Amino acid sequence: MSNFIQTLNDAWQRTNSLLCVGLDPEPSKFPGALAGRPEAIFDFCRTIVDATAPYASSFKPQIAYFAAHRAEDQLEQLIAHIHENHPGLPVILDAKRGDIGSTAEQYAREAFERYQADAVTVNPYMGFDSIEPYLEHEGKGVIVLCRTSNAGGSDLQFLETGGRPLYQVVAQLAAEKWNASGQLALVVGATFPKEIEVVRGIVGDMPLLIPGIGAQGGDVQATVNAGRTANGTGMLINSSRAIIYAGKDDDFAEAAAKVAMETRDRINAFR
Amino acid sequence: MSNFIQTLNDAWQRTNSLLCVGLDPEPSKFPGALAGRPEAIFDFCRTIVDATAPYASSFKPQIAYFAAHRAEDQLEQLIAHIHENHPGLPVILDAKRGDIGSTAEQYAREAFERYQADAVTVNPYMGFDSIEPYLEHEGKGVIVLCRTSNAGGSDLQFLETGGRPLYQVVAQLAAEKWNASGQLALVVGATFPKEIEVVRGIVGDMPLLIPGIGAQGGDVQATVNAGRTANGTGMLINSSRAIIYAGKDDDFAEAAAKVAMETRDRINAFR
Predict the structure, then answer these.
(1) Strand partners of residue B60
(2) Is B67–A98 a contact, with Cβ atoms under 8 angstroms apart?
């Protein structure tokens, strides 16, 4: 039985990288050479994965981009490709699911049995019993939204409750009540480094998935200073569009690899 | 361009029913006659839909049950079947999506273009900019989680903020800030009739999707008293398992129709 948290820690050490490459495939942005291919989404993502794997410690396909194009089968293929060709690099299915227990069981089967993901992102709005069914899949990771990188994230997450903003309550629930099995991690956006620091203070060494550098403009130095653990890891720093669309032509794989390497190195410069 | 809110109001009047039949297909619960059929999920759901349509004003397929079984194509077929054979009964895709704007655009395409749903359920934790992309699909309905029917719903939704529990803040944001286009509705669980009453007081005539009667045990009389609008409508009262698994054998369609009729009538007795 693979264990997400352990695999992640091993990957951080072995690869010397905290970079998580996000896979958000939009066919309208693909280079011309892929146009019209029946499995263009898989071909594009596989090429990006193989080119960036030397610089990454994890991959995060975003399921909406596959579902909008009826490409679930290509997502299955892609995750199988990563496991086969890049063993030891965990795959996070970014799905942000959230539903009552009986439905969450189905989503957990979707993420872990159908897609063979190592971890899945989930939404905490419906509470712990909407998260528990994922934890029953032993060793799998469950990454709970805490402080998201979008501007609207403040609408609810910044509301004060008991003298603290809601996202801090979520961090505390995750760290102190919901993580008996040790499978949890949290999403905290890089667009708010001070909030990463607060969350790190609440959750100890719990891994943080940090989107928002790259296209969303988060500051790498501030992010790393705020989020690293004592051994200089603890973060899955995600970049999607800035890497996968770095090149627009037939050189897109090389362009993605170059930006992935640079991003890894920028992160490592501040660890 | 169909308009969800208008279609729903018309359906309530024309059918004299507030019942929303939830479609949560689990092959392990299907009657033996369907076992082994390649499209058992579609066959089961279509049979339930045709049997219960005389007593319902809407249908709500839950996407997790299709996704866990690689049955997205059967979900497409099912929604097309409802539109073709039961025109005027809106279809709500229960997906509870929630993500940043660029990803929400993809989920909106999935719900409205791929599946041709009339409305979709969404999660408010990431704020208004995670909801806006759905509203750009003119006339489509967007049903925001407010107070969910599960026990764990209280973990966050009951936290006090500004002197009120969080779910009331969500209701107020939805009613006063987020609904300029008139496309919104809210999810409020039947397991909490007092909270339905509070939400109704905040949101005026906004439609409420109310899960939790039937298998989840919510009280029909208390629910209807709390949630009805001045003209005795305003609610999509959902029952899933209590209807679709009412019969276990070849009589499952008749059994579902009977429970659907009884449920409609129990609701109408208190309108």
Answers:
(1) B22
(2) no
Q: Does B97 touch chain A (CB under 8 A)?
A: yes
pLDDT of residue B36: 84
The pLDDT-based confidence of B220 (bands split at 50, 70, 90) is very high
Q: What is the pLDDT of residue B2?
A: 63
Tell me: pLDDT of B68 over 50: yes
Those residues whose C-beta lies under 8 Å from the C-beta of residue B147, and which sit 6 or more positions away, are B153, B157, B167, B187, B188, B189, B192, B195, B196, B199
Tell me if chain B has a CB within 8 Å of the CB of A152. yes
Please give the CATH number for the structural domain made up of A4-268.
3.20.20.70
Q: Which bin fits A169, alpha (ψ -120 to 50), beta or left (φ > 0)? A: alpha
Active-site residue flag, A258: no
Measured torsion, CA atoms of residues B93, B94, B95, B96, in degrees rounded to the nearest 10: 130
Distance in angstroms between the alpha carbons of the first and the last residue of chain A: 31
Q: In chain A, pLDDT over 90 holds for what percent of residues? A: 92
Torsion of CA B66, B72, B75, B76, to 10 degrees: 170
Answer whether A93's CB lies under 8 Å from A111's CB: yes
B224 CB contacts (<8 Å, ≥6 apart)? Answer: B18, B235, B237, B267, B270, B271
* B28 CB-contact burial (10 Å; exposed 0-12 / middle 13-18 / buried 19+): exposed
DSSP string, A42-110: HHHHHHHHHHHGGG-SEEEEBHHHHHTTT-HHHHHHHHHHHHHHSTT--BEEEEEE---HHHHHHHHII
Enumerate the domain spans of chain B: 4-268
Which tens digit of pLDDT belongs to each residue from B26-50?
999 999 999 889 999 999 999 999 9
In whole angstroms, give the CA distance from residue B158 to residue B43.
40
User: Which of 194-233 (B) contact A at CB < 8 A?
Assistant: none
Q: Six-digit token pair at B122?
A: 């969404």
A62 to chain B, any CB pair closer than 8 A? The answer is yes
Looking at the DSSP bridge assignments, the partners of residue B142 are B120, B184
Global ipTM: 0.96
Determine, for residues B96 and A99 on separate chains, whether the beta-carbon distance falls below 8 Å: yes
First to last CA, chain B: 31
> How does the average pLDDT of chain B come out, rounded?
96
Residue B171 has pLDDT above 60, yes or no: yes
Burial class (CB in 10 A: 0-12, 13-18, 19+), B217: exposed
CA–CA distance, B221 with B241 (Å, rounded to integer): 20
Reference B146, options B135, B136, B138, B154; nearest CA is: B154
Catalytic residues of B: 96
Q: Which of A229, A2, A104, A27 is nearest to A210 (CA)?
A: A229
